[in-house]
Amino acid sequence: MIQFLDKIHHKDSKNFFLIAGPCAIESEDMAFEIAEKIVRLSDKYQIPYIFKGSFKKANRSRVDSFTGIGDEKALEILKKVGENFNIPTTTDIHENEHAALAAKYVDVLQIPAFLVRQTDLLVAAANTGKCVTLKKGQFLSPESMKFAVEKVRDSGNEKTAIIERGNSFGYTDLVVDFRGIPTMQNYAPVILDVTHSLQQPNQNSGVTGGRPELIETIAKAGIAVGANGIFIETHPDPSCAKSDGANMLKLDLLENLLGKLTKIREAIL
C-alpha cells in the first residue's frame, strides 16, 4: 500500500511501516506534538510513517463519551499535520458520506472493525481513489477478509491493506492469532494494530479497559512473524486521553519500542 503514497518517506528502507498517533484529534497542539516526535523517530530508524487520528469517534460505549471536537475542525488539523510535516495521514470513517468528506483532507481512509462487512461503506471509500485500510472484525476469521479486500478491488481500487486488531475472546477480552497474518497477506499487506489488540471492551463501567504493559510483547511478535506494518495509538499522557487511554502507549516510550522492533525486522530479513 505504501507505494501509492507520494508523501511517505523511507520507502526503500525495507523496514516495517508505522501508522501511529492519538486515538482522537483533541487539539492542534497535541496533534503537532505527537507528529513531531514520531516524524523524528521515523527518520532516525528509517521507518515509513503515516500519522493517524480519528476526526470523529462514533463507536462509543455511552452517549456521554467523547466523540470529537467537530468534524471539519479535526479534519483541518489532520490536513495541517500532513502539510506541515510532509507526511501522509489517515482517519477512520463510519458513514458513507464520510468517505468523500475525509478524502478531501487525508491520504488513507480506515474502515473500522465493526463496519468492515458494510459493502456500501467499503465501496464509497474505494470510489474516492484513496488508499483504504480494512480493520478485521473481532468476529471474523482471517480467511473471510478476502471478501472485504475484493469489495475494494472490485470497485476499481487496488490501494488497500488489512489491519489485524485481535479476536473476541469471551465478553471482555481480545487475543491475537498470529497465524492469521500470513493468511491475510495472501490478500493484501497486513498491519498489526498493537494497541487495539490489547483492549478489554464491554467493561461494566462503560469505559473500555486495556493491557498496555503487553504492547511490546504483541509488537515484537507481529514483527517477528512478518507483519508489513504496525499500528500504535500513542499520547503524551494516556491517563488524560479523551478516548482509549487505557490501551495507548505513552509517547515517551515509543522510541525504545521502535528501536527494538527495527532490530527484529533486520534479523528476519
UniProtKB/TrEMBL annotation:
It holds the Pfam family DAHP_synth_1. It is an enzyme of class 2 (transferase). Keywords: Cytoplasm, Transferase. Its main location: cytoplasm. It is found in: Cytoplasm. Its EC number is 2.5.1.55. It comes from the Bacteria. GO terms for biological process: lipopolysaccharide biosynthetic process. Residues 10-267 form the DAHP synthetase I/KDSA domain. InterPro entries: Aldolase_TIM, DAHP1/KDSA, KDO8P_synthase. Pathway: Bacterial outer membrane biogenesis; lipopolysaccharide biosynthesis; Carbohydrate biosynthesis; 3-deoxy-D-manno-octulosonate biosynthesis; 3-deoxy-D-manno-octulosonate from D-ribulose 5-phosphate: step 2/3. GO terms for cellular component: cytoplasm. It catalyses: D-arabinose 5-phosphate + phosphoenolpyruvate + H2O = 3-deoxy-alpha-D-manno-2-octulosonate-8-phosphate + phosphate. GO terms for molecular function: 3-deoxy-8-phosphooctulonate synthase activity. Belongs to the KdsA family. This is 3-deoxy-8-phosphooctulonate synthase. It comes from Chryseobacterium taklimakanense. The lineage of its organism: Bacteria, Pseudomonadati, Bacteroidota, Flavobacteriia, Flavobacteriales. The gene is kdsA.
